[in-house]
Amino acid sequence: MSKLIIDSLKCEYREKPLGIDIKKPRISWKIQSDIRGTMQKAYQIQVAMMDDFSEILWDSQIVESEESIHVEYSGPELVSRKRYFYRVRVWDNFERKSSWSPFSWWETALLDSSEWKASWIMPTPKELDTNSEPAFLLRKEFNVKKEIIAARLYGTGVGLYELFLNGKRVGEDLFSPGWTSYHKRLQYQTYDITPQLIEGENALGIVLADGWYKGTLSFENKRHVYGDKRAALFQLFVAYSDGTEEVILTDSTWKASTGPILYSEIYNGEIYDARHEKEGWSKSRFDDTNWNETVVLDLPISNLVAQENWPTRVTEVIKPIESFVTPAGDTVLDMGQNMVGRMKFKVEAPEGTRIVLKHAEVLDIDGNIYFGNLGKAEQQIEYIAKGTGVETYTPHFTYQGFRYVRVEGYPGQEKGLPLENFEGEVIHSDMESTGEFQCSNPLINQLQQNIVWGQRGNFLDLPTDCPQRNERLGWTGDAQVFIDTALFNFQGGPFFTKWLRDLKADQLPDGNVPIVIPAVVAGVGSAAWGDAATIIPWTIYQKYGDKRLLAEQYDSMKAWVEYIRKQGKNEFLWDSGFHFGDWLALDAKENSFVGATPKDFIATVFYAYSTRILRDTAEVLGKTEEVQEYSELLERIVEQFNYEFIAPSGRLVSPTQTAHVIVLMFDLVEGKAKERTAFELNELIIQNNYHLTTGFVGTPYLCLALSKGGYHETAVKLLMQEKFPSWLYPVKKGATTIWEHWDSIKEDGSFWSEQMNSFNHYAYGSIGNWLYTDVAGLSMDNATPAFKRIRIQPKFAGTEFTHAKAVYESMYGKVVSSWSLTQDDVEINIEIPPNTTAEILLPFASISDVLESNLLLADSQSIYNYKENFEGVCVSVGSGRYHFKYKNIRGLKPTFTEETRLIDLLDKKKAVEVLEETAPGITKPPGIFATKTKMLKDLAEYSEANLTSNKVTALVEKLNKIEWDKENS
After folding, report:
1. Which of 15, 492, 765, 955 has the fewest Cβ atoms within 10 Å of its own Cβ atom?
2. Catalytic one among 382, 391, 626, 740?
């Protein structure tokens, strides 16, 4: 019997979200089917107050629609602090009806700020210096008088907090409440503490530290950016079985003290003196007679929002692979991986023993641990033992970026460190993993791992640039160039929803976008940085179909474009203001970080790109008048760009790799100028011996532009380059994350300047997007968001890759593109989720030669149509698993040269009509076979010609006799 199953129910991207304040939450689901070509034809959603659905709150009834993602709840108005159960069933195109899905639920938090009755509290300044370094301890005892049915705790802090109930930690979340634009938006969290409450006496405890709110921030070492007082706000609701409810609030009856955390800062680390531990301080009946009073602090509650982002948690634990003594005499642990998080260790030591851990990313040329790139960040943990047996310690309100840890003061370390007593806890936003990539080349597989580790390390509540030095800021430029890669690797909906709301909150009244979000440093308005305001919401819409977020950010997107429009003397060029340019490009002048591509060139390209996105967004949102307005604006920008920056011959005024890349990627040229730009980009790479010179602006799009322009083989050669500068140079140097500089470690083992040299800086990891979309061939039709219409189009290039595989968990389900080559055969395995369709290109295939699951295409189920073109065979399919196999007409040979590429096309009888007698009416260019490059130009120019079989044969024979001009190769 065939099956049609509904699973993976999500509400606002999450499974069973606890504590949301969205009044019309959206529901998504996935379909499992054992029949190919399954499409949803109708759905029904029920929402109830009980999990047996005896009391239906909303029934959508049967809705004829393929919609299965972000379906908005349309029932009665939701109530605060309630759990809502929901289930889904669907009908498909085979007249099948699914059973009801297993139920899921969401639970509301406080939907109105008037429901906050608690007060912000802090220790009384008369008794405890509120600017002292030790973390505060806050406690309150209360009595639970009756049988409990439910207990919810809602709360937040200015500073960071950890929460305890009856002596045990509440939840697994770290660095709560996260980092937002605090004055405008402060997240609060919801905890189900029902299992931890007991009938009778209970106690709540809060640990409160500086965090991002008032601690040291940025390379400018600012303090008290948002405020100079730590405070906590919590509200506990206890529901009893008799229908009554009790509320426990933060107020001036709480008591305060300090404890063992003497110092804790994001950048500098933590000092923990176990001798100051207050045993049982968060339990009932603790003697707090000598504790200090608390006072109410006048802080707003109108800026409170329920938790939006994935929580930050420990997501993995790794063990050190060795300990060793450096030439300088330091005892060092090697974690085997550049990671972000903290060290946990056990020790048995006399009272007062001081153990110091200092963290670093690399060793220097002599094998000593290297701290030079940390700036003013100490990255140091200090633990003072209490001497009462085996003690275990984990830092609380700090994190480090490191692979190596220098250990001082550990008992007996001169005989070697006991590795079993140390472990590294990996910390980041606990995003769902959604993407995988692997291939036949182990160096590329390591590169992919480096990309993923770089994202994990820098996606700690916001997209930071680096996790080790005194910076760790939400740089807009880094985030936007990496967004496509990021959303393949991990589910980024909640993560970027939260961050984009901060971008909108911190955007200046004139539309200018700060260079970092949250905006804690000076500097605004740079092209390719501020464009995060348009690029990121649009990309999220493309990947997830999130129209609501797009609508929410529309005013911000429009404000950014209008800000640019007002700059300079010409509203159609961006030729004024500060810009980073092609940051860290290798074609920069001596002692400069800015590449050679003119800043106004880059700025105008991104002006056009953001305008295009705004136009497309207006179209999606049905803003007809603004579609017209921004279509006209885009047309004028492109026109002015071509007038200003492109010669009549089609040559760009800027002869850099980056200039050619961004012009191609953002469609600033058409026709002959586009062909010339692609050709010249290819030549620039070849002339530089297949090395790049691009920086932050050009690198993310470099291989994409080459493949898009018809030079995929060059892109592959560029990727496979192992010598500096290249993506694989750091891999060969032992990197386990992405470096900030192409030569963060130089050939001789020395370092790039200490001023700015992160070994975990994800921006150049944006190459991942090309690996997934072009090498593995997994992409989508951008006109139909969220992978509703999938494109599978792998690109082959010689023996550099003999197999590749990408797996992506889309909003509709798993998408797989996997291919392998042998000398004789091509095999391609595809998986398409139900309720979607796909276009598949089988490169260099012929219809008569293709088998799908051992059947001819004409006999294969759920292949809707197929056709052959000069690239291969294009197949349209429905959902299901497909296995294609056909002859490898090219065999296995090194990456194709331009010559072999031409002959390959000729063999398929789709070649250029280059002989005068075969192209009546077309004037033969002079010296048509003078050089290889000239012939290739003609190949592109006359690619639509139809040669008869005998003319193809004659042409091949003539070409085979040509001696290639090596000077032009």
Report:
1. 15
2. 740
